[in-house]
Structure formats: C-alpha cells, structure tokens
Amino acid sequence: xxxxxxxxxMILLAxxxxxxxxxxxxxxxxxxxxxxxxxxxLAYGPAPGDIERVTQMGVARYIDSQLxxxxxxxxxxxxxxxxxxxxxxxSSGEVLGDxxxxxxxxxxxxxxxxxxxxxxLARINNQTAEARIARAVxxxxxxEEVMVDFWFNHFNVFSGKGQVRPLVASYERDAxxxxxxxxxxxxxxxxxxxxxxxxxxxxxxxxxxGLNENYARELMELHTLGVDKGYTxxxxxxxxxxxxxxxFAPRQLVARNETFRFDPKRHDNGDKQWLxxxxxxxxxxxxxxxxxxxxxxxxxxxxxxxxxxxYFVADEPPPAxxxxxxxxxxxxxxxxxxxxxxxxxxDEFMSPEAQGAKFKTxxxxxxxxxxxxxxxxxxxxxxxxxxxxxxxxxxGCQTPDGYKNTQSAWxxxxxxxxxxxxxxxxAQGVDAALVQAAxxxxxxxxxxxxxxxxPQKIRTAMLLGSPDFMQR
Length: 472
Known about the structure:
mainly alpha; two-stranded antiparallel sheet; 27 helices; 4 strands
C-alpha cells in the first residue's frame, strides 16, 4: 500500500468508524480491555507498559490512586523541567509586571525594544504551555491533568484578551489545579476572585451606576445552574449588582501581588431581589452568599454532573447516571471527588458500550499520541503549532463556554486529514511495535491487520492516524 493510498483510506475509515457500534460483550469490561478503557478516560491514553501495569494492579486500585494523586510521586525529570520554567513559578504580579513593561514600550520601535517584547511574550506563552503539556504527557497523576483540562474549559478564560495572557499560568496554578478533586465552592470562589477571570469577563469594571453583567450571566449560565434553569434576566442583573466592587488593580497586583480587592466605593449598596430572595446590603458578603447558594443548588448539581458524564462516558450520557451523580453532589455539598467516585464506580462507565464511544479532542489526540510513542515533547512550539492547525489552540478558546468535548465539534474531513498529517510527522523515528504494544486491545484486529500488511516505515503513522486511535 502506498503512503498516498493509505492516507486516503485512513480518512475514509475514520469517517465511517468514528461513531462505534455497541459491542456484543459481557455487561462489564474486564482484563486488558478494562485497563485500556480507564487509561483512555482517566488518563491521556496508555504509555508503554501502562495497560499491563493497570491490569496487574487492578482497575479499582488504579482509579483510587488517581483520585488521590498526592500519593503518586512525579518523575525527577518532570520535576526538574517544571522547576526551570520561571513563568509558572513566579507570582501573577511579577509576570504581569513583565508584560506591562513591554506593552508600555509599544511606541519604542528600536530593534532592542522589539526583541525584548518578542522575548518576554514568547517566554510567557511557551513556558505556560510547556508546563501544561509536560505534565499531561509525563505525570503519573493523569486524572489530575485530565481534570485540569475539564475545569479550565468549564471556567474558561481566553489568553488572547489583553492582560489575561500573563495571568493564565497563575489562574491554572492557583484557581484551578488545587481544587480539581475538592470543594466546588472553593474553586468557584477562587476563579471568581482571580484577576484573569475578573479581567476576561469584565467584572473589574462593574460598579454601581456602571453595571457590567458579563460575569454574572456566565456565572449562572455556564459555571453553575446551566442555561434556562429557572432564573430570569432580572436575576442576572441583580447578581451583577451583588458582585459590584469585586475587582483588582493591575498596578497594585504588580507592586504588592494583590490579586483581588473588594472596593466598597464601587459597590451597589441597594437592596436586591435575587432568585426569590431579598438581599440586604452586606458589601462583599453579598457575592459570597451568591456563590454559596449557586455551588450547592440542585440545578448546578445536575448541570455539572451532566458535563462530567458527557466527558467521561458518552456525548449523550445516561440520564440515570447523571441523576445519581447529582444526588451525590447535593449530599456531599459539591465534593468533586465524591461525585467522580459515583461516576467511576457506575455500570455505565465500565460498560462495553462506553469503550471507544468518545472522539478525542485535538488536545487529547496530541497528548495521547505523545504518550503512546513515549515522546517527551522536548520542544513545545511544534506542539502548539499542531494544536493551532487542529483548531484547538491551547488557552485559545475565545468564548466563555470553553472547548467542546463531543464528536460533533471535532469530526470533519479536514480535521481528520490534519490529524493524520500530524501523526505522520510525529511517527518519524518511533517504533511501531512499541506503539502497538502500548495501545493493546484499544486497537482493533482489523486495524492491526491493515498495519501489519503495510510497509514498515508507515506503520507507526497508521496506528496514530487510525480511527481506533482517534476514539477513546
């Protein structure tokens, strides 16, 4: 088979196989099939030896270890790599200071000034991305990295909007990562008060007499209750009034690392009517009360349980599973780890129908390909370029709803051809036998047969560009 004919056949196969049929198999996955399944859902796919290791230790024990990542030590090479990335180690104020300094040099057109601007912006962009990608590829705490991706999209900020760019590293590190298995209320508060979110959705501008409703609307529509879940436009306006004065000052952030400030002079001190409640003037406490109510609201429980089940089980998740997860949410007052335990212990999650039922996002595809090929992703810029070409630039979703994780969002012929092109590039110098062993039973016998009958030099690319590999 020629490379050209293989390329065309892979696009055709991917298009017709992307929605897998239900498998005629026992009620629950077992053995290496179960190991491959959890590695494709709780992790960014198997690395060499992972399927055997998870099979030996048992799927239940693996899931428990991933839910308690503090017990998993980071490899020395990864720790050293992260330690060398000063952007992700420094405070948000320090990084913002560098950004503002070169931004204020915009009228200086000397070559030295241009070079300094390029150097500072490239360092901020590349180091922030390198930290995320290096962890996703090499960290044994795979579920933690998967949940960072999930929650960042849930509480999305767009790095291309002004001062958000230098604040993204801190936002992920300080407002997302510490809470991915903890209290949803804590994460809700951390994102609400982080300068990246305050700037992105303009709440830092909102004041009595000059109301900005952007954050209040997305707080209810995206972050908590969901669309059309019993609130009105009046409730959005009243919540925006409750959140006036929640702000930050860039110069104070740079000088004193003051990431959040409540400004009573900007706060609307009138009575509010919100979600059927009368809210008396209490300053910052009004906003804190709103977050308390929203975090444990039954609509929030169902909305986020649906999103989690959609991410981990199927694009149209089983309603009964979503309901059980929502019940756990309410009973635990929004304890994320408890909700995930309900999800991962469910029959629906471990059913044969769930195996391979999800289509990888470009990010999942790129990271899983690196893991299968045992690549360290030493250079981050080619990876960022690939994500751009695949339509999913890292930290680059402009809208507050974040990137979708469903097949309909990512499956189209042009996207498939670009993925196969990336697989061909990545496959150079990577042993096909290593990749095949790493992927195990997640590659069908049909694909294995096609690969085995093809020239040696294109086998790795065929595996990484196959329909089987694009599913998880």
